[in-house]
Amino acid sequence: MLDxxxxxxxxxxxxxxxxxxDALAARVALSPSAIARRLRRLRADGYIAKxxxxxxxxxxxxxxxxxxxxQLSEHADLKGKTALGERIRKxxxxxxxxxxxxxxxxxxxxxxxxxAEFNEVAESVLIADxxxxxxxxxxxxxxxxxxxxxxxDAGKASAD
Length: 160
Known about the structure:
- By secondary structure, this protein is of the alpha+beta class.
- The chain has 2 domains: about 5-55, Arc Repressor Mutant, subunit A (Orthogonal Bundle), CATH 1.10.10.10; about 60-140, Alpha-Beta Plaits.
- Helix content is about 40%, strand content about 20%.
- It has helices at about 5-15, 20-25, 30-45, 55-60, 80-90, 115-125; strands at about 65-70, 95-100, 105-110, 130-140.
- Strands 2-3-1-4 form a 4-stranded antiparallel β-sheet.
- The longest helix has 13 residues, at about 30-45.
- The radius of gyration is 20 Å and the shape is elongated.
- It starts with a helix and ends in a 21-residue tail after the last strand.
């Protein structure tokens, strides 16, 4: 069961997980030791899947990013879809993958060192078999906002 303190902690660590328990205690009305215990429990219970470091744009601005829309073949079978999903998960250049509804079936974000790497990965991931009918690529010109954050409502604290 998540209470309002858990929700407040989850919101805070989404903004910046490098905060110390003391710094979090200034924002969440709990002692640093209670915060540390709760964070350990939230991680152990799977509410916090992983902690990552987001690089500043100055570290990534020269990289090639591409948003790729994928349309699957009308005759794509479960085996082909499973193999495609596995190739996507294994490619570190694919930063995220969403199954979507509509004309397109998937939305992918690629992050590559250059066009040659993008072409190599796109060919090995997307053109490896007939599961992919077609794909369309848009290249990112500039990062305007990157803030992966889900605002949780402490008033709606709930069980699993």
